[in-house]
Amino acid sequence: MDQVPGSPQEPQDARGDDGLPGCYRHPDRPTGIRCTRCDRPICPECMVSASVGFQCPDCVRGGSGTGHAPRASVPRTIAGGTIAANPRLITMILMGINIAVFIAMTLDDGRLLGDLVMLGRTPPGYLPEGVAEGQWYRLVTAMFLHQQFAHIAFNMLSLWWLGPPLEAALGRLRFIALYLLAGLGGSALSYLLAAPSQPSLGASGAIFGLLGATAVLLRRLNYDMKPVLILLGLNLAFTFLWPHIAWQAHVGGLIVGAAVAFGMVHAPRDRRTLVQAATCAVALLAIAAVVWVRTLQLVG
């Protein structure tokens, strides 16, 4: 953990390329947000949501500063989650699952792929069967499958880059919900629009969901949107121009990830948990509705 300056009034001279001051706990992270009590610059990982603005962890734990704001017993992230000592834990677990499944697929000569890949429906008499035949679990398992080394390498690098900042800003439980719902959104749209017998696999839907969530978070914090918008544009261009890419999964994950993140970071503080849970529930119901409609089309 980075060293915390001893005095609330200690000046912070670190400046980023855009002229913003660096977080007092993480000087290499430029930020435009300051603690409402001590006025020190704080990054998303250090922000603790308050009734007005955000506070730094020191002020929350020590009750420092003026005014009569109540001391919070547990520091909270911008989305209301608990601030974790290791903001990369869930990201590392997800990476570990993906890598373990990839190794298992490599060792079993493709049999695991046939059992877990996302398939809509296959012609009668063919194996494996698909989602339309009742194997709904494929919508989830496909999120953790990769065939080529370049495929999993690119997705895991993207997850390592996008995951920790979102995990720190949202909290672990909300980050897990975001990741899984975005991945399911990608599987659902692929199931709806792709050919029934076209297999779809990979963490790309969830990764695009994290990219959309990053854009929403930066907008919420009034950060410069140009870098993430450029990155998003390049990834979408690559999605539609490169052959053999399931663009449906990318777009579905992006839409669901951005929508869920919006509900999480814009939820009113007095009803935050309720609004966030309702946002996730609505997203899950929408995904289930898409799957149900497509299943009726395929078996009707």
TrEMBL record:
<protein>
    <submittedName>
        <fullName>Rhomboid family intramembrane serine protease</fullName>
    </submittedName>
</protein>
<feature type="domain" description="Peptidase S54 rhomboid">
    <location>
        <begin position="134"/>
        <end position="265"/>
    </location>
</feature>
<keyword id="KW-0812">Transmembrane</keyword>
<dbReference type="GO" id="GO:0006508">
    <property type="term" value="P:proteolysis"/>
</dbReference>
<keyword id="KW-0645">Protease</keyword>
<feature type="transmembrane region" description="Helical">
    <location>
        <begin position="200"/>
        <end position="218"/>
    </location>
</feature>
<keyword id="KW-0472">Membrane</keyword>
<feature type="transmembrane region" description="Helical">
    <location>
        <begin position="144"/>
        <end position="163"/>
    </location>
</feature>
<feature type="transmembrane region" description="Helical">
    <location>
        <begin position="175"/>
        <end position="194"/>
    </location>
</feature>
<dbReference type="GO" id="GO:0004252">
    <property type="term" value="F:serine-type endopeptidase activity"/>
</dbReference>
<keyword id="KW-1133">Transmembrane helix</keyword>
<dbReference type="Pfam" id="PF01694">
    <property type="entry name" value="Rhomboid"/>
</dbReference>
<keyword id="KW-0378">Hydrolase</keyword>
<feature type="transmembrane region" description="Helical">
    <location>
        <begin position="225"/>
        <end position="243"/>
    </location>
</feature>
<feature type="region of interest" description="Disordered">
    <location>
        <begin position="1"/>
        <end position="25"/>
    </location>
</feature>
<dbReference type="GO" id="GO:0016020">
    <property type="term" value="C:membrane"/>
</dbReference>
<feature type="transmembrane region" description="Helical">
    <location>
        <begin position="274"/>
        <end position="293"/>
    </location>
</feature>
<comment type="similarity">
    <text>Belongs to the peptidase S54 family.</text>
</comment>
<feature type="transmembrane region" description="Helical">
    <location>
        <begin position="89"/>
        <end position="107"/>
    </location>
</feature>
<dbReference type="InterPro" id="IPR022764">
    <property type="entry name" value="Peptidase_S54_rhomboid_dom"/>
</dbReference>
<feature type="transmembrane region" description="Helical">
    <location>
        <begin position="249"/>
        <end position="267"/>
    </location>
</feature>
<dbReference type="InterPro" id="IPR050925">
    <property type="entry name" value="Rhomboid_protease_S54"/>
</dbReference>
<dbReference type="InterPro" id="IPR035952">
    <property type="entry name" value="Rhomboid-like_sf"/>
</dbReference>
